[in-house]
Amino acid sequence: MTDVKNLLACRNCKMLTDSEALKAAKVSLTECPQCRGQLTKDWQGYLAVVDFEKSEIAKTMGISKNGKYALKVR
Ligand SMILES: [Zn+2]
After folding, report:
1. Where are the alpha helices (DSSP H) in the chain?
2. Cα 39 to ligand 1 centroid, rounded to whole Å
3. 37 alpha carbon to ligand 1 midpoint, in Å?
């Protein structure tokens, strides 16, 4: 299980990325792997999207990829 404390949120698309996975892949810890937006530790609450095509909240949030998303990003 991923430790929530290791998750970084993207300021642009709100996707959460595991910082441990970024370290393991030797890629930047400040750049979103999905959209190249800025990653931050300053976020609250998350939503796991398993089927974005059927999820109303994913539609509302403009999510077009399954994954974990922060509800609030500062
Ligand atoms: Zn992003």
Report:
1. 19-24, 56-61
2. 8
3. 5
Instruction: List, for residues 3-61, the tens digit of each pLDDT value.
Output: 888 999 999 999 999 999 999 999 999 999 999 999 999 999 999 999 999 999 999 99
Look up the pTM and report it: 0.87
Q: Give me the domain span that covers residue 35.
A: 4-73
User: Can you give the C-alpha Rg of the chain in angstroms?
Assistant: 12
Give the distance (Å) from ligand 1 centre to CA of residue 9: 8
Residue 8 Cα to ligand 1 middle (Å): 10
**What pLDDT is stored for residue 1 in this prediction?**
56
Q: How many CB atoms lie within 10 A of CB 56?
A: 7
* Total of domains in the chain: 1
Q: What's 57's domain CATH number? A: 2.20.28.90
